[in-house]
Amino acid sequence: MSTPIGAPALLWIALLFFSPDGVAAVILESQLSLNPPWNRIFKGESVTLTCSGIHSLENDSTKWTHNNKILTVNASNWDIVNARTEDSGEYRCQQRLNESEPVYLEVISDWLLLQTSAQVVKEGQSFFLRCHGWRNLNVYKVTYYKDGVALKYWYENHNISITNATREDSGSYCCTGIIQRIPKNSTALTITVKVVPPNYYWLQLHIPLLVAILFVVDTGLLITTQQQFRFLLKIKKTRRGKKYTDPQPTPDPPKD
C-alpha cells in the first residue's frame, strides 16, 4: 500500500526540480508587513506588524525578534501602541518557514516626517511617499524633493505614488511644508530600487500554479489511501467474523 507524501514534502520536491538556480527558498520565507505601511512613525503613534506565509493546518506559534533579541510575542500580529524611540530597529518573524526579510521601523520626534511604504523596492514595483505632520496637524504648501530637486508641489497635502519603479527612482527624498504658519523640513529618506533577476518573474508566474496542482494531487493521494485503509479494515473484520460464525466440521457417524 502506498503512503501519501505530505504537502510540504511535495512542495519542496517540486521546487527543487522546477525552480531555477535554486532560488526556491525565497518563496518559502515568512513575510513581515506593517499596517499602516509606513516604516517611519512619530513617537506616540501605533503600528501593527503582521507575519504571514504558507500555513499548514497546524496552529504554529510565531517567533519574533527585535534587533536580534527574541521577543515574548507568539501571535502572528503584534501591535505597537504609543510607540517609543526604543521601538525603533530591525524586526523579523518566523513561522513554519524560513525567517522573514528584516523590516526596519524608525520612531521619530519632529514636526514633519517623510514616510514611505518601502525603503527598498524591487524594480517594477510601486511605492508611496507621504509628508506627515506631527499629531496629524495640517500641512500646507507641500513640496517633495528627490536629490535636492523639486519633484511635486501641492498647496494641500497629498501623497505621491511612484509606479513601476526603476533604478532612476533610487535616491534621497525629503519634503517641506507649512505647519501652523511655520515652514518645516523633514529629514532625508533614502530609497533604493533593486534590480530583480529574470528568474524572479518566472517564479511569480509558475509557483502559485504549481502549489495548487500539488495540493490537488496530495489531497487525492490522501483520500485514496484512506479508502484503501478502510477497505483493508473491512476485509480483516469480515475474516475475523467468519472465523467464529462458520459451522465447525462434525465427525462422520459411526458405521454399523
Automatic annotation (TrEMBL):
* Keyword Disulfide bond belongs to the record: yes
User: What SMART domains does the entry give?
Assistant: IG (SM00409), IGc2 (SM00408)
Supply one GO BP term.
type I hypersensitivity
Presence of the UniProt keyword Disulfide bond in the record: yes
Which residue positions does the secretion signal occupy? 1-25
Transmembrane portions of the chain: 200-224
Q: Which domain of life is it from?
A: Eukaryota
UniProt subcellular location: Cell membrane
Keyword terms = Cell membrane, Disulfide bond, Glycoprotein, IgG-binding protein, Membrane, Signal, Transmembrane, Transmembrane helix
**UniProt xrefs under InterPro entries:** Ig-like_dom, Ig-like_dom_sf, Ig-like_fold, Ig_Fc_receptor, Ig_sub, Ig_sub2
Protein name, as recorded? Fc epsilon receptor Ia
The record, for Gene3D superfamilies, names:
Immunoglobulins (2.60.40.10)
| Source species of the chain | Catagonus wagneri
Report the GO molecular function annotations: high-affinity IgE receptor activity; IgE binding; IgG binding
Q: Where is the Ig-like domain?
A: 20-109, 121-192
- GO cellular component terms, semicolon-separated: external side of plasma membrane
